[in-house]
Amino acid sequence: MKPNVLIIGAGGVAQVTAHKCAQWAAEFGAIHIASRTRSKADAIVDGIRAKGHEAAIPTHTLDASDSAAVAALIRELEAGIVINVGSPFVNMPVLNACIETGAAYIDTAIHEEPDKINEAPPWYANYEWKRREDAAAAGVTAVLGAGFDPGVVNAYARLAEDEYFDEITSIDIVDVNAGSHGRYFATNFDPEINFREFTGKVYTWQGGEWRVNEMFEVGREWDLPVVGKRSAYLSGHDEIHSLAARYPQADVRFWMGFGEHYINVFTVLKNLGLLSEHPVTTAEGLEVVPLKLVKAVLPDPASLAPDYEGKTCIGDLVKGTRDGQPGEVFIYNVADHAEAHAEVGSQGISYTAGVPPVAAAILIARGPWDVKRMANVEDLPARPFLDLLGEMGLPTRVIDAEGDRPI
Ligand code: NDP
Predict the structure, then answer these.
(1) Are the C-beta atoms of residues 105 and 142 closer than 8 Å to each other?
(2) How far is ligand 1, taken at its centre, from the CA of residue 149, in Å?
(3) What CATH superfamily classification does 4-148+347-392 receive?
(4) Which ligand 1 atom sits nearest the alpha carbon of residue 190?
(5) How many angstroms does the Cα of residue 11 sit away from the middle of ligand 1?
């Protein structure tokens, strides 16, 4: 019997995830969406209908921070797979509900606590991995970080391990958005989550230990396929931790592309204290969290989609040795904002993040990823995932000594 799927969240990523579930409905039983604001889930379903998909997609109101409520809904809907694309603040309650009920769990980001910004590593070990034994004991498949980064980039590292090298010596993940939304300033996903990523220290895994830098302290120019020469800066990112656990001998770094304009605006906001999560009180006695205020005045990331042009390039430069000989490969995807909008009504960043968890769900439903334990993406076979993503709109290419070609 095909598993019923419950999508949690109704934001930018969830919209893509829901469209893709509808496109691939033959792989699943019933498809449901549950979120805090049900009207947003209804709007997603309207958009799916407008694309001509017939499958019934019931929507539900859910406070996913309430683990018992999540478990009750999973039981009521007999959901076999939960795709958690809500805010990262709800990861642990949703994961706990899955372990309790036996449903498979998929997410795309590491758990965060609202009052703790930019926690120090080991990130997965701070939260999700604490339940690893419980997931295995319950026979529950939990695939962590199955978006693009983390997610597909972890599979790229695994592909390099499986098909290119005997030993991996470094993994440099590069994420460049060369698109333009035409606004003065906007973030591509939830501003709160976006800024939280960059307001603290930058952690990388180098020389077998964690190294710490300041944000925008270490940058370099990359010459990437399609998008060309771009500046990217060392940033902390979830997947550095899980990749460092699997490849402790390798240097693992994450480079995020930023234009000068973004850095200038970000720096001003930060230096003024407007990215703080600590409340301030105005002269009128109003208590305001500056970060929430900034979020409220910035464009809704979903509203950027219709005007977004250009492409993203995200990939892994992996170095290693084979038969004692050093070598390197760049494994990557290029996505197009306008194509994403035409297909599912979203911009390319949401598209690259929202498609992979559906591929993960399909591989759980079909069996190859139904491992009955907790796993990060690099712990699972990469080929079926990357091949399926190619069919679903996120093809993978590789550049090595033989040139630039599809994997
Ligand atoms: P959005 O802020 O657009 O959407 C989050 C959704 O979660 C909203 O619909 C929100 O509801 C809902 N939500 C929040 N709290 C609750 C709650 N307590 N109960 C039920 N629903 C809740 O975020 P994105 O779509 O941009 O991101 C979704 C996830 O994807 C995040 O975890 C993000 O970190 C991750 N991500 C991963 C990427 C990757 O490549 N790995 C890239 C980009 C994002 P409401 O509408 O009421 O606010």
Answers:
(1) yes
(2) 15
(3) NAD(P)-binding Rossmann-like Domain (3.40.50.720)
(4) 2
(5) 5
* Mean pLDDT, range 126-141, rounded to an integer: 98
Q: What is the pLDDT of residue 392?
A: 98
> Where do the domains of the chain lie?
4-148+347-392, 152-346+397-406
Q: Tell me what the mean pLDDT of segment 44-67 comes to.
A: 95
Q: How far is the CA of 322 from the centre of ligand 1 (A)?
A: 41
What whole-number distance in Å separates Cα of residue 180 and Cα of residue 350?
15
Model pTM score: 0.96
| Alpha helical stretches, state H, 323-399 | 337-344, 348-354, 356-366, 382-392
The CA–CA distances, whole Å, from 135 to 138, 312, 333 equal: 5, 35, 32
| Contact residues for 238 (Cβ-Cβ < 8 A; gap 6+) | 109, 110, 123, 124, 145, 150
Query: pLDDT tens digits, residue range 91-132?
Result: 999 999 999 999 999 999 999 998 787 789 999 999 999 999
Indicate the class that CATH gives domain 152-346+397-406. alpha beta
Asked if pLDDT for residue 197 goes beyond 90, the answer is: no
